[in-house]
Amino acid sequence: MTLFLISIFGAIGCVVRYLAEYAVRRHHPTNRPWATVAANAVGCGVAGFVAYHFLGSADAHVRDVVITGFCGGLTTFSSAFAIPAILQREHHWGYSLTLVLTTPLTCAGLFVLGMSLAH
Amino acid sequence: MPNLSLSPKQLALAVSATAAGGFVGTLLRAWLTGLEHLANPNGPVTWPREIPWVLLAINFVGVFVATRLLRGPLRHRDPNNLTRILVITGFLGGLTSYSGLFVDVAAIWHVCVGGALVVTFGAILSGVAAAWLGLLRHHR
């Protein structure tokens, strides 16, 4: 049952990320994945908050559903590296390198911020 | 750039494709990482024992496949193409996880700060390597 709920919330996370990407592309046509970077950062922030909030809690189900499910679906490792690789092949070297370096930094920053807020 | 606006029906289809791919991808990740926890019962807490090998492998494969597809069969597909949404945004997006990586790194941080940094940089380097390998076949 928990695995099913995790998957449902993972699907919801993916849909939120897609809608964010769609909204950005629709209003600012671009092949640069700003919304993906933002989704990764926000997902890590939420994961940091929930991970700290449920630290040592016996209720692991809520933690798993939110972190493994929703946050796992909202964030994406594949696009975070595949899209910069494609941009690099299209000679956007600087932009590609910026994405690869800033995504983990913003994710780490938001994760720590999330934990601090839960503290 | 192609016209990126969708009709309500097209948007509903895109959302459904994302949800379907995301459901399967998340299910597979949750199942595989759950197996790792079962195979790694409680014992002495050392940072090498806490390394999330399964998630690292999933992320590596996800980056490789996404890069191959975006450079190959899905190269000329616009971002609202249903196949691209189903596979890249949904399935591979649900399969791979950035947040899960940081949750695991935070657990290692409590045991060994150096180990957490090693895992973080290793994960980033593995992502770069997977993308590079994904580009290789289609290079020239």
Descriptive account of the structure:
The complex is a heterodimer of chains A (119) and B (140). Chain A is an all-alpha fold. Helices cover 84% and strands 0% of the residues of chain A. Chain A contains 5 helices and no strands. Chain A is globular. The model of chain A has no long low-confidence stretch (mean pLDDT 90). With 140 residues, chain B is mainly alpha-helical. In chain B, α1 (8-39) packs parallel to α4 (82-95), α3 packs parallel to α6 (113-136) and α5 (99-111) packs antiparallel against α6. The longest helix of chain B has 32 residues, at 8-39. Chain B starts with 7 loop residues before the first helix and ends with a helix. Chains A and B meet through α1, α2, α3, α4 and α5 of A and α1, α3, α4, α5 and α6 of B.
Average residue pLDDT of chain A: 90
Integer-rounded radius of gyration of chain A: 15 Å
Q: What structural category arises from helix and sheet content of chain B?
A: mainly alpha
Average pLDDT rating of chain B:
89
**Poorly predicted parts of chain A:** none
What's the main sheet of chain B like?
none
Could you tell me how far the N terminus lies from the C terminus of chain A, measured between alpha carbons in angstroms? Answer: 30 Å
Kindly estimate the percentage of residues of chain B that lie in beta strands according to DSSP: under 5%
C-alpha-based Rg of chain B, rounded: 18 Å
Global shape of chain B? elongated
What's the multimeric state? Answer: heterodimer
Helix content of chain A: over 70%
| CA-based shape of chain A | globular
Percent helix of chain B, as a range, is over 70%
Structural class of chain A: mainly alpha
Q: Total helix count of chain B?
A: 6
Figure out the total of helices of chain A.
5
Please trace the helix and strand order of chain B, writing H or E for each element: HHHHHH
